[in-house]
Specification:
Blueprint: E1 2-3, E2 10-15, E3 18-25, E4 28-33, H1 36-49, E5 60-61, E6 64-69, E7 72-76, H2 78-88, H3 117-130, H4 138-144, H5 153-168, E8 173-176, E9 184-191, E10 202-209, E11 212-220, H6 228-241, H7 247-258
Antiparallel strand pairs: 1-2, 2-3, 3-4, 5-6, 6-7, 7-8, 9-10, 10-11
Length: 259
């Protein structure tokens, strides 16, 4: 198998029989293919080299649950969400319809300091991992993550609202199906000078491949835009960078590492 040039944890083999993909994360392996016979021979080879356990069809991987139906493959983090609600005492909380109050402005020092900043940081970290499968909380999590050093009570309450939102639908996730095309589509938006802290705009974008959501982000822009048009162009540029051809950049970085 060959190592992917874009992600060193991904290995692949292309042959006349089809394609085999192998993903490694520490001591966990996921294999998928269009070459069925090739997977059997690959697993047989791995068993001669390592002590491995074949868990069969993929159902659970790194906190992500995998379910199949005629519509496609559905990914969720339901157990992860429920465990998080139990840990924070929010399992019995009243659900809310949005992860953050619209136009809410969180500021440094906007209320008294939260008594356990380490707990705040741990919870934000877990929510950041949850955005792997929850684009709907990406913006709210990006906001609360800006106050990791000195969180206040108001920041902690904002975290509580995200949890209450998750309580409303802990099994919400992403469906990947066959939509009959291979189009790449990108959508972007921005709030011009939305932050009262530094007047920077926040870019949001999502990228669809073959009708399936594969990438998304919510992040402050690196400079202050002096017009809404400027902020929109910056947002579009950041979005397009997510889909551009990056082979040259990969080779450049690899060459510097080898040197």
């Amino acid at each position: 198998m060959q190592k992917s040039k874009c992600d060193h944890s991904v290995f692949y083999r292309q042959s006349e029989a089809g394609l085999i993909l192998l993903v490694v994360c520490v001591d966990n392996i996921v294999i998928t293919r269009s070459d069925s016979a090739g997977i059997s021979s690959l697993k047989t080879f791995l068993q001669t080299q390592f002590q491995i356990k074949d868990l069969g069809l993929l159902k659970y991987f790194l906190g992500i649950e995998v379910m199949r139906s005629k519509k496609g493959i559905f990914l969720s983090q339901r157990k992860y969400v429920i465990d998080l609600l139990i840990e924070t005492g929010k399992l019995g909380a009243k659900p809310c319809s949005a992860p953050m109050t619209p136009n809410l402005q969180l500021l440094a020092g906007d209320s008294e300091l939260f008594e356990d900043p380490e707990r705040y940081r741990r919870l934000v970290g877990k929510l950041i991992y949850l955005t792997v499968n929850h684009p709907d909380i990406a913006y709210a999590v990006s906001v609360v993550s800006q106050f990791m050093s000195s969180p206040t009570v108001a920041h902690w309450e904002a975290l509580g609202q995200i949890l209450c939102y998750l309580k409303g639908a802990p099994g919400r996730g992403l469906l990947y199906g066959n939509h009959g095309h291979l189009n790449v589509e990108c959508f972007s938006d921005v709030d011009w000078a939305g932050s009262e802290v530094d007047r920077r705009s926040t870019t949001g974008y999502c990228v669809f491949v073959a009708g399936n959501l594969v990438s998304w982000r919510s992040k402050k822009q690196s400079v202050v835009s002096r017009s809404s048009a400027e902020s929109e162009y910056r947002a579009m540029a950041q979005s397009v960078c997510e889909t551009k051809h990056i082979e040259i950049d990969c080779y450049f970085v690899r060459e510097k590492i080898q040197q």
